Amino acid sequence: MSKKILSLADLDITKKCEEGYEFEVTDDSTGKGTGLFLTVIGAHAPVLTNYVQKSLNQRRAQEAMNEKRGNKARVRPIEDDIEFGTELSAKRVIAWRGISDECTHENDMTLCRTNPLIKEQILKASEDLANFTKSSAKS
Hints:
The protein is an alpha+beta fold. Among the domains are: 44-75; 78-124, no CATH class. The protein has six helices and three strands; from the N terminus they run αββααβααα. Strands 1-2-3 form a three-stranded antiparallel β-sheet, covered by helices on one side. The longest helix is centred in the middle third of the chain and has 23 residues, at 46-68. The chain is flat and about 65 Å long.
């Protein structure tokens, strides 16, 4: 039995995370499907990692500028962090079925702001790398 040799491209999880994964949103109380299907990208997709890096670099630069000017350190309110998390969740949604409104970033934000249970399911599906590597597991 010969052992399969992998290339670096085979091991590129960031590329695989760019491919959408569709899942059905479940009702937390019953565990049954709701008829709402969301397509998400994986947590390691470059669009997400680039967004995190850019946002955090901007925060750090602003803090450094304030410090350099002799301004008091600004305590960042928790609401900023919550909004950052909502933005990061919404950026993971690339399509949906079962919602009459168009899937836009603004509507993704509304969905994540108004339904924390769906937001949790988006994060769970996006963070589960098995959702993005199943096809490559075949040898």
